[in-house]
Design brief:
Strand content: 15-25%
Strand order of the largest sheet: 9-6-10-12-13-14-17-18
Number of helices: 10
Length: 436
């Protein structure tokens, strides 16, 4: 148990009957004595109440075991209150679905609902987490359409039980891709589906994991029957925001409030206390009925970014590889090079004439594409390219894969792409949504 600590420290701890996981004071500091995996053997590792670990040189310190404090990793196993409303959790990986193991000092995945209460005891007063389903454990950047299909099937199964809602814990990097995919794959949605992650790991005092999950549980019990992402609304621990799954994007690599609604206001603000302020009335409300997982998907869809000097022949490469559709992340209103030396028009035209759809989105993210403002846009529109309104490039990518799983004829594909299926197209953009 004292492995990797010096013999002097081991002798002192044994004499004082102090074990790893005990609460102790070291000079002016109080915290939990942690196991040591590496480093200077004469440095004590202490976890403070703020969540951070510190190292303290053993020589000359005053150490005292605090009475009446049961060792953390041997605490009595807590249980959820079965009289509370039931909620299911699907864990796919990420720091939010893990806990500190005080017997080893490492982080491990949660395997049963009761373990959530070690990190987030507040959940006991909110809901009864009926189970933690682990279909796979992956870094989010390693996920693909097959994982979205698996999640949709499991979520539908859990929603069709007595659960009030389903929470999916997920890595943050591609969280908005998964939220978009589930938005299209879950038909006849009657209950909330909340995707949630953490920007800061659970062993840090600044971790957002606990509050994000608490707010997600409140959304799971709400009247909002939508797929969405629930994450911090500000850098502080003020409130979370719940944004529609097709209109949200990770806009910062590290900030706790990285996930922002795009071209619309978030559906709601949620406080850890359970207070919910509806900020966007345009959402489906909780109802009765069986949820269906409609997971047909064409994986061979390419998302290409247009930029000055970009090479249009890349489309030919993907066509030869058997790709069935393209999303072009064009500039501003939907521009691609037209009169440039490397014009994209011939490649786009030949691709469409071969029966492969080309969808135009904007890399500006905010605002919408428009085929009629400039002459070059009209030239592009004449090729038969589909201008995807204010759809986000990532959402359009996911939607086209789902549409191609259901339609083959060009007119059917165009109709489905321009039909607002899961709130992905905003009829009129609220000006307050810009940089919300």
């Amino acid at each position: 148990m004292y492995e990797n600590y010096s013999l002097a420290i081991q002798k002192f701890l044994k004499k004082g009957k102090i074990e790893i996981g005990d609460r102790i004071s070291v000079n002016e500091y109080e915290g939990v004595l942690m196991p040591k995996s590496a480093g200077d053997p004469d440095i004590l590792v202490l976890k403070l109440d703020n969540g951070y670990n510190i190292g303290i040189a053993f020589k000359g310190v005053k150490i005292k075991k605090l009475k009446g404090e049961e060792r953390i990793f041997k605490a009595k196993k807590p249980e959820f209150d079965k009289t509370k409303p039931p909620v299911a959790i699907i864990a796919t990986g990420g720091t939010i679905s893990s806990k500190i193991d005080y017997s080893t000092g490492g982080v491990r995945a949660l395997t049963e609902p009761s373990e959530l209460l070690y990190n987030i005891p507040e959940l006991f007063h909110i809901a009864n987490v009926t189970g933690i389903v682990r279909p796979f454990t992956k870094m989010s950047e390693d996920m693909n359409y097959a994982d979205w299909q698996t999640l949709a099937e499991i979520i539908a199964k859990e929603l069709n039980k007595d659960n009030k809602g389903v929470i999916v814990t997920h890595g943050t990097d591609t969280l908005h891709y998964t939220s978009a995919a589930l938005s299209f794959m879950l038909k006849n949605l009657t209950k909330p589906v909340i995707l949630v992650g953490a920007q800061r790991s659970t062993d840090r005092g600044s971790s957002d994991a606990g509050m994000n999950l608490i707010c997600s549980v409140h959304v799971a019990l709400s009247n909002i029957a939508e797929v969405g992402i629930c994450m911090h609304g500000t850098m502080n621990d003020d409130y979370c925001i719940f944004s529609r799954g097709t209109k949200v994007r990770k806009m910062h690599s590290t900030r706790r409030d990285a996930f922002r609604p795009m071209n619309e206001l978030p559906l709601a603000k949620i406080w850890p206390s359970g207070n919910i302020e509806i900020t966007n009335e345009n959402f489906k409300k909780r109802s009765e009925g069986k949820v269906i997982a409609d997971t047909k998907f064409e994986e061979k869809v390419a998302l290409l970014k247009v930029y000055p000097g970009s090479e249009p022949s890349v489309m030919d490469y993907f066509v030869k590889k058997g790709y069935k559709g393209f999303i072009l992340e064009a500039t501003a209103l939907g521009h691609v090079p037209v009169s440039a030396k490397k014009s994209w028009i011939p490649a786009i035209k030949s691709t469409i004439e071969s029966g492969i759809p080309v969808i135009i989105t904007t890399q500006s993210l905010y605002g919408r594409v428009d085929p009629f403002v400039y002459s070059n846009l009209r030239i592009l529109a004449a090729t038969g390219a589909i201008f995807a309104e204010d759809m986000l490039p990532e959402t359009a990518y996911v939607k086209l894969g789902w549409v191609l799983g259901h339609a083959k004829k060009p007119e059917e594909i165009k109709k489905m792409m321009l039909t607002n299926i899961a709130g992905e197209i905003t009829e009129r953009i609220d000006p307050r949504a810009f940089l919300y």
